[in-house]
Amino acid sequence: MSKQRAVLEVIALDVEDAVAAQAGGADRLELVTDMTADGLTPSAGTVAGIRGAVDLPLRVMLRLSDGFAAGDVDRLVGAACAMREAGAEEFVLGFLTADGGVDLDAVERVVGALDGCRWTFHRAIDRAADRDALRKQLDGLPGLDTYLTAGSPADVDDGLPTLLAESGRRGEPGYEQQLLVGGGLRLEHVPALLEAGIDGFHIGGAARPDGWDGPVSAEAVARWRRTVDGVGTGD
Fold first, then answer.
1. Which residues contact 166 (CB under 8 A, 6 or more apart)?
2. Low-confidence ranges of the chain (pLDDT < 50)
3. What's the CA dihedral at 43, 32, 97, 125 to 10 degrees?
4. Residue 178 belongs to what domain range?
5. Which SS3 state, helix, strand or coil, does residue 134 take?
6. What three-state secondary structure class fits 206?
7. What CATH number is attached to the domain comprising 69?
8. pLDDT digits (tens, 9 = 90+) for 43-63
9. Which pTM was predicted?
10. Where are the beta strands (DSSP E) in 58-116?
11. Residue 65 falls within a domain, yes or no?
12. Alpha helix (H) ranges present in 96-189?
């Protein structure tokens, strides 16, 4: 049986990004707005427009303000419902308390509104006081299938030992979910991560040669596609 290929997820801000990412070989999109705040919930219109333009799976960010506090949970639940009405079927979320613990009440309320949809717990895990405790607390929540992480609050350079260690625990309670590596991820990181069995990669600025003021480049995504597939960097 052939090995299932690794997932390449690309951040998209609009339809142009989404179309380019699909052309370059992305497997999935993360939909956000306002990267100056590290990515917030996009408009329902943006989600509907992208849904109509590409046939890739879309994960929609549920985050109303910069930082990892949940804020107004009623508004988050409302946003989740609006996104579902716009055609969203997969999501990204993650909330912490002031002391770095998982805000389980907020997470459970939002996940309840998703009604079984699949979702990613995002890089809030990299700011958690205790990563292992967070995973154990979230274990068993419906729909949770992915952790987006750099392995550290900084980037993959700092977090690589943690990523490799957590990959080695996959299948243990709290570690069944896919590791989706992102946050300062570079092409040269990929071979070692693949060798360790990591099969999820997430890029944002790396897909944009002109930075966040420019669009996703299909050619840049294709270069990542080749590297994630283990067929060279394309440089």
1. 131, 149, 151, 175, 179
2. 1-2, 234-235
3. 160
4. 7-228
5. helix
6. helix
7. 3.20.20.380
8. 999 999 999 999 999 999 999
9. 0.95
10. 58-61, 90-93
11. yes
12. 104-114, 131-138, 156-167
